[in-house]
């Protein structure tokens, strides 16, 4: 019989035939790392569900069924877990956080809510007054609220108990390919226009001889990558599974991420690139500068500016000293986002929840560079 304390993890795991997003990859990483600690009997309630060609009512019923099963799991009689950890998107936090909060209160189970993404502020502002009030009384009063960016921590600093939890990964940096400058550039992510793909394709037209841009990711409505590629230096490599990403990154010199997507938080691909030793060219957009530091581990450009993106790519292609320095900076900063490191922190925070004196209105201030005390 397993004598370890039980820990209930609730969230979406990657499933076959589904578009894999950061929330699912992040939750899968959390599950694996918490199991690896050996400190808990980890119980997982997977909230992923296929959404076939359903109308709005069908999707509502599908989501309600999953949420009901989660609530019943929390309320089921028997040995209580030491905590329930709910990993969710911003929309899911507002829609379902209140119910899980109520269920955990009824059973006196500490509730940890980890919101993935950088758009909780946008969802909160656009919600109707009743939803915002409900969130203040429940979501923001969770026993522990984990937010991804420092900006969000500042916005929701009135939360009962708040900690900064950045995107994490556990990649092993591959051997250096020996490149002295960047000629092989890569973009990995969902293929949306607001990810800066049109600007990326235009910027790649000015790459020096031997320069290439490869684009990987699932096609999303509104942008056709195959029709958009016009230059012989640009290629589309298809969608990748999370397991394929490290090997693909090892084939390139630098990552570009010229996003101006309104919900951008701290994309996992940036962490994976840094841990693989790839400098990142990104935009001064929302929380992206929290992880990409200009001329330390990458270069920052203005959103939507293809000429500035082209200039940044050419700097990495023609300035070996800069490229070498940024590669070292990438590897160094990537260590701050090791999944194992943050799993250990989470275990400590969960342990604190078992002590009544630590259930008071404690809040931890935001911390830079993905670090927390």
The number of helical segments is 13
- Which architecture of the largest domain does the CATH hierarchy give at level 2? 3-Layer(aba) Sandwich
| Terminal Cα span | 36 Å
The biggest sheet, with number of strands, parallel, antiparallel or mixed sense and barrel status, is: 6 strands, parallel
Low-confidence stretches: 358-373
Helix percent reads 25-40%
Tally the structural domains: 2
- Share in β-strands: 15-25%
| Average pLDDT number | 90
The SSE order reads: EHEHEHEHHEHEEHEHEHEHEEHHH
Oligomer state equals single chain
**What is the CATH domain class of the largest domain?**
Alpha Beta
Do you know the CATH topology of the largest domain? Rossmann fold
> How many strand segments?
12
Indicate the structural class.
alpha/beta
Task: Tell the overall outline.
Answer: globular
Question: Could you describe the 3D structure shown?
Answer:
With 373 residues, the chain is an alpha/beta fold. It has two domains: 6-169 and 338-370, 3-Layer(aba) Sandwich (Rossmann fold), CATH 3.40.50; 184-336, 3-Layer(aba) Sandwich (Rossmann fold), CATH 3.40.50.2000. It is 39% helix and 16% strand. It contains 13 helices and twelve strands. The chain has helices spanning 22-37, 56-75, 90-107, 120-126, 129-137, 150-155, 197-204, 225-228, 245-249, 268-275, 306-318, 320-334, 339-353, and strands spanning 6-11, 41-46, 83-89, 111-116, 144-147, 162-164, 184-188, 212-216, 234-238, 254-257, 280-283, 298-301. The strands form two sheets. The chain has a six-stranded parallel β-sheet with strand order 2-1-3-4-5-6, with helices on both faces. A six-stranded parallel β-sheet has the order 9-8-7-10-11-12, with helices on both faces.
């Amino acid at each position: 019989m397993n004598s370890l304390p039980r820990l209930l993890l609730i969230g979406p795991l990657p499933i076959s035939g589904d578009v894999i997003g950061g929330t699912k990859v992040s939750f899968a990483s959390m599950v694996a790392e918490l199991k690896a600690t050996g400190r808990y009997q980890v119980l997982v309630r997977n909230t992923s569900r296929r959404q076939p060609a359903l109308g709005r009512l069908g999707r509502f019923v599908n989501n309600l069924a999953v949420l009901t099963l989660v609530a019943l799991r929390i309320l089921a009689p028997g040995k209580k877990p030491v905590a329930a950890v709910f990993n969710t998107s911003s929309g899911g936090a507002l829609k379902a956080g209140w119910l899980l909060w109520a269920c955990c209160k009824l059973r006196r189970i500490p509730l940890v809510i980890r919101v993935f993404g950088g758009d909780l502020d946008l969802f909160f502002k656009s919600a109707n007054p009743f939803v915002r009030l409900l969130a203040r009384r429940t979501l923001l009063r969770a026993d522990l609220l984990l937010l991804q960016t420092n900006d969000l921590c500042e916005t929701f600093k009135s939360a009962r108990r708040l900690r900064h939890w950045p995107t994490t990964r556990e990649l092993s940096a591959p051997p250096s390919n020996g490149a002295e400058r960047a000629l092989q550039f890569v973009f990995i992510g969902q293929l949306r226009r607001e990810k800066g793909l049109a600007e990326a394709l235009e910027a790649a037209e000015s790459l020096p001889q031997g320069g290439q841009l490869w684009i990987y990711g699932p096609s999303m409505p509104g942008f056709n990558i195959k029709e958009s590629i016009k230059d012989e230096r640009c290629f589309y490599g298809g969608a990748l599974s999370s397991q394929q990403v490290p090997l693909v990154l090892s084939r390139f010199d630098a990552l570009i991420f010229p996003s101006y997507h309104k919900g951008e938080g701290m994309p996992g691909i940036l962490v994976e690139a840094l841990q693989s030793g790839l400098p990142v060219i990104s935009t001064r957009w929302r929380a992206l500068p929290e992880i990409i530091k200009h001329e330390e581990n990458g270069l920052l450009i203005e959103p939507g500016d293809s000429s500035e993106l082209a200039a940044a790519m050419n700097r990495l292609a023609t300035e070996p000293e800069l490229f070498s320095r940024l590669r070292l900076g990438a590897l160094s900063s990537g260590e701050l986002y090791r999944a194992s490191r943050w799993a250990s922190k989470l275990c400590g925070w969960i342990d604190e929840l078992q002590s009544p004196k630590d259930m008071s209105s404690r809040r931890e201030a935001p911390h830079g560079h993905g670090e927390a005390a």
